[in-house]
Amino acid sequence: MALNPDAVGVESKESSLRFDWKTLVLYALGIGAKRDELDYLYEARGPKVFPTFAVVPGYGAMFELLGRSGGSLEQVVHASQSVRIHGSLPSSGELSTKGKITGLYDLKKLAQMVFVTETRCEGRLVFEAEWSMFFLGQGGFGGPRPPKSLVPKIPGDAQPAFELAEVIPPEQAILSRLSGDVNPLHIDPEFAKVVGFEQGPILHGLATYGYCARALIRSALGGDATRVRAFHGQFRKPIWPGETLVTQGFQVDGGYVMRCLAAGREEPVALCSAELMEP
User: Fold this and answer.
1) What topology does CATH give the domain 5-276?
2) pTM for the complete prediction?
3) What is the 3-state secondary structure (H, E, C) of the chain?
């Protein structure tokens, strides 16, 4: 398939997701929630909802718009993700989501696709999200260059306000995909090799994103996810199940910036930032 530059402006169909407490708990487990985080795992306590759950109802729009872009689904890599929280969720209900392609950009060797989604819970706006994907090897189509993207910056020589190291269990990507991102890159060793990951299936970028948000909530916000107004992540390198993910958080005006490292590797696997509401 060839990337279709005329796909900018294409809108997805409205997709629906019926959810209950099991849906919310499954997502929490997929981003590493532990048994001492019972507020997010136990139906008698809500359960509470991690802000990065906002990506889950967008998966239907994501797969539809990726297909309608004309790009190769075997060459997709998640580049960045942002979510903004507008409202809380009940313990069960129905979510409806629509998406729209807002940009297709030419990076010579790569093509970048950007789309946005809006999610409503029974008519009430609860989440907005912006998604950015790379199509490997599909640049050079003569399209525009992308605008400058938001890159979370670690302030100077600041020391982390918190640091959390967590081993990614070998089965974590298999668990994480049950929330809806069923790309075979995260489970099929042969598929991973075909697309260049000889070491095997990688963890979802959006799982790393969720781990990072969870580390902030657990380590700096007293477990209170409602403090997070918006969360942005830029993905730099893959991380494999079995590795140790180290999240370092730095306090800045209005929130935090985070650096996610794979233990033993110097370059961050992700950089994230959070905009907070006052307690």
Assistant:
1) Thiol Ester Dehydrase; Chain A (3.10.129)
2) 0.95
3) CCCCHHHCCCECCCEEEEECHHHHHHHHHHCCCCCCCHHHCCHHHCCCCCHHHHHHHHHHHHHHHHHHCCCCHHHEEEEEEEEEECCCCCCCEEEEEEEEEEEEEEECCEEEEEEEEEEEECCEEEEEEEEEEEEECCCCCCCCCCCCCCCCCCCCCCCCCEEEEEECCCCHHHHHHHHCCCCHHHCCHHHHHHCCCCCCCCCCHHHHHHHHHHHHHHHHCCCCHHHEEEEEEEECCCCCCCCEEEEEEEEECCEEEEEEEECCCCCCCEEEEEEECCC
